[in-house]
Each structure stands twice: as structure tokens, then as C-alpha cells.
Design goal:
This protein has 393 residues and is α/β, with parallel strands linked by helices. It has 3 domains: 8-122 and 347-375, Rossmann fold (3-Layer(aba) Sandwich); 126-254, NadA-like (Rossmann fold, 3-Layer(aba) Sandwich); 256-337, 3-Layer(aba) Sandwich (Rossmann fold), CATH 3.40.50. 40% of the residues lie in helices and 14% in strands. It has 16 helices and 13 strands. The strands form 3 sheets. A 5-stranded parallel beta sheet has the order 6-5-7-9-8, with helices on both faces. Strand 1 (54-59), helix 3 (64-67) and strand 2 form a beta-alpha-beta unit. The longest helix has 15 residues, at 376-390. The relative contact order is 0.16. Residues 1-24 have low confidence and may be disordered. The chain binds 1,3-dihydroxyacetonephosphate and iron/sulfur cluster. 1,3-dihydroxyacetonephosphate binds next to helix 4.
Length: 393
């Protein structure tokens, strides 16, 4: 019997149907039941048997039950570096989402295997920019006569194809920790004094691109235009493309994009003296109303350094906020989730203990399941773009 949930069923379950779940994802028959009381012991035993052969990376947005088994936790930038720094690990089990596992595969040797415990762990933002759409966009830039003055900067949250496009066209990858440096680098690449002013095509998160351009580089909102891949020429005239400095792809995070100005105003009214700290994937109006803005690593460091008695409302993924709230409760730091209705990232949450146990026990039995492998040509150009990022000052 086919038990793959239909898009309607997913909707009713509160989970989003996304192209990742249509990537040919098997529902493994041998997956342990989530109610199995021995799961923790089984995960421990399998990890111990595999020893140094396995290295488990855990993104900050993963469930507690999974984070418990991570050898290292981090944001996407830190995890990319950690993967690249482990040449001796035969198996890298990536507890995160598909684009992160692809990046790890690109940055590790062919002898190493990168495993994503559930192939349905995609990212709706990464799926908002396909290779065909981006090629069409580049044609529109070329027709407007601005392609040669444009440097692509792609957020880590993009497919390997988009990273390869970026590498082929002289661009770099960025994460939320280094977006400012990536943009400064990109604007320095185009020779001054050309016929058209230098510009950046920022993919696929319009909010990170806009927030970084305006907050960190001092641009105005008028310097930014939004390219809509569902409209001819992105819905922009050649003149608009020529006048823009930042061409923002019309993509967004379905979690961070839900925080609203109302949620900031509401929490300020409920909790006097609260500090509002949000991730730069949030909308510009939310970021503008916040006290502090930063990547997941930045958020963790800010809370670590916060004085006892301080109060915080955090606008990022709920697994991380809950963990931080519990961790710092003893130090009398009050940490709340910025919005009362925003949910977990449904695709991050697909990696659960049953999938992790299944992936690890399969390795113990000599079987590699859910290997993520990027083809050679894509890898070559995507690596160029990733290495440019790792070399950013
Ligand atoms: P960082 O890990 O770069 O903070 O990105 C957040 C995110 O949404 C990852 O999917
Ligand atoms: Fe993608 Fe947003 Fe989930 Fe990150 S939090 S994996 S950007 S949908």
C-alpha cells in the first residue's frame, strides 16, 4: 500500500508539501517505531560501534532528540567548515536539510559519504529557485545589458545547481553569518567606471539580501528590485534592472517570513524592557523594528553574554528557541518565542530519532542509506563558489 501523504493530507497534518518530498523519497520499511523505548540506547550503541568512522553534524534547528547525538552543532556556515575539516570520517551523517548535505558532499572527498537520514528534509526556500528559472533571469539581465556588471551572490540555502551557476558566473555563496562580507566582496569585483553601475543578483532569499544591503551596506530600499521568476523578465523593465544595485530573487523562508511587525509590537506590550532579537531571514519591517539581528550562531552568543534578569523575544526557529529558553532559565534569563502562532520548520523536523537510528544501524550493517551525491560537473563549479565564501576575509 502506498502510504505517501498527498499534498492535501500534508496540509491537514500541518506539514507543507514541497518538491523535496517528491524527490523519490522512500518510506523505509525498517524504520523503527517512534514509540520504541530503546531508540536512545540503539542510537548510542550504533554510534559507539561506528566510532571514528562516523561524524554527526547537527544544525541548530534540529530536534533535541537528534541534537543529543551530534558531534558538533552549528549554523550552516559552521557546519560547512566542520564537514570540510573532517577528511578522516568515512561517513558524515548530516542532521539538517538537503542543501546542507549537498554542500558537505561538495566540500568533502569522494571517499567520504554524506548521509541525510530523511531525504524529505528539503527546504522550501531553496526550492524557490530552480536552475531553469535562474538561467532565464540571466538572459533577462543580458537583454538589459547588465549581465557583465552583475555578480551573483547565493545564500547557502540553495541547491547545488544554483551554487554551480554562481560559481560559473564569478560569484560567491554566503550564509547569514557572512552576508555582509560576501556583498562587500561582490561589489568590489566589478571594475569601477563601467557603463552600468555594479550590481548583485542575490538568490534566493529576498529578505536576507535586502536586510544586508540596507542595514549593513547603507543602501536605500529603492536600490533594490525584486525579480519574480513567475513573471516574464521577472516583472521588471530593462530600465529597472539597469537602475538597481541589488536584484533580489523573490524567495523567502516559510518559517522566518511569518514573523510580523504585529508580533514585535505585541511582545513589547506584553513584556516591558524585552530585547527583540531576530534572524535576518525575517521581513525588513520586522528587522527594522528589532533591537538586534543576527544568524543563529550570533543569537546563541548574544544570549550567552546577556546579563541575568534580561528578557528576550527571539525570532528564529522554535527548536532552537526552546532549547535556549531551557538552557538559560537557570541563569534567570527570560527567553520567549517572538510569535505565538509560528511553527517549527517542518522539513528540519523530518529528521527524527527513528531516521537517525535507521541511518546509523544501516551503516553498522555495512549499508549506506540516503547518500547525497552531487555530480562531478555541478560539484566543480559549486565548489568554486563555496571556496570563495570560505576565503572571504
Ligand atoms: P543559518 O544556519 O545560516 O543561521 O540559517 C538559518 C536557516 O534557515 C537554515 O536553514
Ligand atoms: Fe529552509 Fe527556512 Fe526551514 Fe531553514 S528554516 S530549512 S530556510 S524553510
Amino acid at each position: 500500500m502506498d502510504v505517501t501523504p498527498t499534498p492535501l493530507a500534508l496540509l491537514l497534518l500541518g506539514r507543507e508539501a514541497d518538491p523535496a518530498s517528491e524527490r523519490g523519497v522512500d518510506c523505509p520499511g525498517e524504520l523503527p517505531a517512534p514509540s520504541d523505548p530503546d531508540l536512545v540506547a540503539r542510537a548510542r550503541a550504533a554510534k559507539e560501534k561506528l566510532g571514528e568512522k562516523v561524524f554527526i553534524l547537527g544544525h541548530h534547528y534540529q530536534r533535541d532528540e537528534v541534537i543529543e547525538f551530534a558531534d558538533v552543532t552549528g549554523d550552516s556556515f559552521k557546519l560547512a567548515r566542520e564537514a570540510a575539516a573532517r577528511p578522516d570520517a568515512e561517513h558524515i551523517v548530516f542532521c539538517g536539510v538537503h542543501f546542507m548535505a549537498e554542500s558537505a558532499d561538495i566540500l568533502t572527498s569522494d571517499a567520504q559519504q554524506v548521509i541525510l537520514p530523511d531525504l524529505a528534509a528539503g527546504c522550501s526556500m531553496a526550492d524557490m529557485a530552480t536552475a531553469e528559472q535562474v538561467a532565464e533571469c540571466w538572459d533577462a539581465l543580458s537583454d538589459a545589458g547588465v549581465d557583465e556588471a552583475t555578480v551573483p551572490v547565493s545564500y547557502m540555502n540553495s541547491s547545488a545547481d544554483i551554487k554551480a551557476f554562481t560559481g560559473r558566473h564569478g560569484g560567491t555563496i554566503c550564509t547569514s553569518s557572512n552576508a555582509r562580507r560576501a556583498l562587500e566582496w561582490a561589489f568590489a569585483q566589478v571594475p569601477e567606471g563601467g557603463e552600468v553601475p555594479s550590481k548583485v543578483l542575490f538568490l534566493p532569499d529576498q529578505h536576507l539580501g535586502r536586510n544586508t544591503a540596507v542595514r549593513d551596506l547603507g543602501m536605500s530600499l529603492e536600490d533594490c528590485v525584486v525579480y519574480n521568476p513567475h513573471k516574464p523578465n521577472g516583472g521588471l523593465t530593462p530600465e529597472e534592472l539597469r537602475n538597481a544595485r541589488m536584484i533580489l530573487w523573490r524567495g523567502h523562508c516559510s518559517v522566518h517570513g511569518r514573523f510580523s511587525l504585529d508580533s514585535v509590537e505585541d511582545v513589547r506590550a506584553r513584556i516591558p524592557d524585552v530585547n527583540v532579537l531576530v534572524h535576518p531571514e525575517c521581513k525588513h519591517e520586522v528587522v527594522a523594528a528589532a533591537d538586534l539581528v543576527g544568524s543563529t550562531e550570533y543569537i546563541i552568543k548574544a544570549l550567552d553574554a546577556a546579563p541575568a534578569g534580561s528578557k528576550w523575544a527571539i525570532g528564529t526557529e522554535l527548536n532552537l528557541v526552546r532549547r535556549l529558553a531551557n538552557r538559560y532559565a537557570e541563569q534567570d534569563k527570560e527567553i520567549v518565542f517572538l510569535d505565538r502562532t509560528v511553527c517549527f520548520c517542518s522539513t528540519m523536523n523530518r529528521i527524527d530519532l527513528p531516521h537517525l537510528v535507521w541511518a546509523l544501524e544501516s551503516l553498522v550493517e555495512g549499508r549506506t542509506v540516503n547518500r547525497i551525491s552531487v555530480d562531478e560537473q555541478t560539484e566543480h563549479y559549486a565548489k568554486l563558489a563555496l571556496e570563495r565564501m570560505l576565503a572571504l576575509p
